[in-house]
Amino acid sequence: MAPIPLFTSPRALSPFFSLHSSFVLHNPQSSNPEPFKKALLATFWPEPVACRASRRPPASETASLPTTDPSVVEAEGTGAAAPSPGERFLEHQHARARAVLILKQRGSKEKKKNKRGKAVSSSAEACCYGCGAPLQTEETDAPGYVDPEIFELKKKHHQLRTILCGRCKLLSHGHMVTAVGGHGGYSGGKQFILAEELREKLSDICYDKVLIVKLVDIVDFNGSFLARIRDLTGANPIILVVTKVDLLPKGTDLNCVGDWVVETTMKKKLNVISVHLTSSKSLVGIAGVISEIQKERKGRDVYILGSANVGKSAFISALLKTMAKKNPVAAAAHKYKPMQSAVPGTTLGRIKIEAFQGGGNFFDTPGVHLHHRQAAVVHSEDLPFLAPQSRLRGQSFPVVSKSNLTAADNVGLNGFSIFWGGLVRIDVLKVLPQTRLTFFGPRKLQILMVPTAEADEFYHKEVGVLLTPPSEKQRELWPGLQSVRQLKIKFEDQKRPASDIAISGLGWISVEPFGLGVGQNEFVDCKGELHLDVHVPKPVEIFVRPPMPVGSGSAEWYQYQELTEAEEELRPKWYY
Fold first, then answer.
1. Is the pLDDT of residue 408 over 80?
2. Segment 354-377 mean pLDDT
3. Where is the composition biased (Polar residues) (predicted)?
4. Concatenated DSSP letters for 142-180?
5. How far is CA 157 from CA 18, 148, 226, 274, 416, in A?
6. pLDDT > 80? residue 366
7. Which of 396, 434, 397 is nearest to 513 (CA)?
8. Global pTM?
9. pLDDT in tens, 446-466
10. Are 382 and 422 in contact (CB under 8 A)?
11. Alpha helices in 438-517 (DSSP H)
12. 277 with 270: CB under 8 angstroms?
């Protein structure tokens, strides 16, 4: 009889691969992927097995053969129970889909592991509880330095988490010790880490399921908002916290400010679930933030994000102080709270804070250093000039007396230039007779007005003297006001300011009629267009925005948006 070739099905061969392939499939962390690949190839593309059939042996020969279990000799599913070609095809497709899914899961885990490699390794090492810098005993001037004897003693008693590094001790005594350089860093002083490296430490947060608490400085709302915050947060929910509201001018209605913040935030199209107006100094609004975190956390970790010097460490301290009244875990964590200082870039690494009784952590994170803020332009010694220390007071130009102001008065700004320290110059090219500019920012910066024809000579003579910052020491290295932006602003309503001109990292200038808020005086027609040239250092940004309602008369002119029920439902709520 001629030989008959027989081909076994994948199902028939499956027992031969079941043990080895199942081991690999259930062990995706196996360092040797070759057995896994061979098993898949054998499953999807089995080699044909040829068998030669000879004559049937006589009964006398078969009688002497040992008897065996038919289930061992015959492959499962052969004969009448053999699967049809369609069943084999479906089985192949299902096996292929399962294998692709396993490979995809394995690849995503490896990719995520690579993305988080630096963060995982950094969290495992001992860090200063004040700034998050890894502890070290070699470089005395570098962040994280600890005396070797103290380090060994604390290590012996498992108390490394209670160590404050030398740099943090200097910061706690008021020293201005900068550590961040690069694009967005600070000139002068030592630069131990680049701003780009600090941002890279936050790049893996978008891969985790966490709750984001994003901080924004109300004095520098546009400059500190972080335009590309989605790159850091991903699709995670955001609680927006507006800090330093205690610095707003006296008589400000926080209802108007809250609505203004929500309206501005809606244009950013972020996943913001609520907005909170807070003050870490007076603890205004802190209890509401804690309640919202407890409601939305759902077992997740909480990350505090924001630009440099926005007040993250002070905010966490206020949170822990308030939580400590009812939470013993938070009370213990408050003892080793992050360091607070006026120096941008105080926090240099993630600081893990155990503050919840049911598990979960707070994470204080390094501030995002933005190159377009004034802090990235001035010398490190001049940084205190940019930080408001008390409640803001608007300083208006031209200076007029409210008691003597009448509609017939013609006190104009045309042809004048106004200097805001040595950082901003505004040339008034064309304005209406009753236009005034009101400056809101740190009081340490002098505001001076001179004729535009004399402005260049005045600046070169007085920069570093009357016009500071820069200080006199840095005058020779100061690049000057290299960037000029031409603004055209329309006055449409005589009863409210036209707009705000916000200077990133400094404050804002309100453009308004100077009869606004006087009360008994009549207005002349103030509709028209204003032309201004604003000079700032490169690459400081200038924002033109709707006017922020601050001051005692803001509630009278601020207009709330009329919303439908559907729009109201989508709009985040605000609290204070």
1. no
2. 90
3. 61-70
4. STTB--HHHHHHHHHTT-GGG---HHHHHHHTT-----E
5. 51, 14, 42, 44, 68
6. yes
7. 434
8. 0.75
9. 999 999 999 999 999 999 999
10. no
11. 455-462
12. no
Q: Distance (Å, rounded) from C-alpha 308 to C-alpha 185?
A: 10
State percent of the chain over pLDDT 70: 76
Determine the Cα–Cα distance for residues 89 and 251; give it in Å rounded to an integer: 77
What mean pLDDT comes out for the span 44-63? 46
- At which residue do the structure tokens 């001051």 appear? 551
In DSSP terms, 417 is beta-bridged to 427, 450
- 410-419: per-residue pLDDT in tens? 557 999 999 9
pLDDT in tens, 324-348: 999 999 999 998 999 988 788 889 9
Q: Determine the average pLDDT of the residues in 304-320.
A: 93
The tokens for 299 are: 């077992």
Element (H, E) at 295: helix 286-296
Q: Which helix (H) or strand (E) holds 428?
A: strand 424-430
HEC-encoded secondary structure of 311-366: CHHHHHHHHHHHHCCCCHHHHHHHCCCCCCCCCCCCCCCCEEEECCCCCCEEEECC
Which three-class secondary structure state does DSSP give residue 386?
A: helix
How far is the first Cα of the chain from the last one, in angstroms, to the nearest whole number? 96
User: Which residues lie closer than 8 Å to 252 by C-beta, 6 or more apart?
Assistant: 549, 550, 551, 552, 554
**And the tokens for 161?**
């988490």
- What are the tokens at 511? 């453009």
Q: Which amino acid is at 75?
A: A
Is 90 exceeded by the pLDDT of residue 524?
A: no
* Beta-carbon count within 10 A of 357 CB: 12
C-alpha 180/C-alpha 197 separation (Å) is 9
Find the helix or strand (DSSP H, E) in which 292 lies.
Answer: helix 286-296
The CA dihedral of 246, 469, 501, 308, to the nearest 10 degrees, is: -60
With tokens 């559907």, the residue in question is 566
Tokens 């939305």 belong to which residue?
296
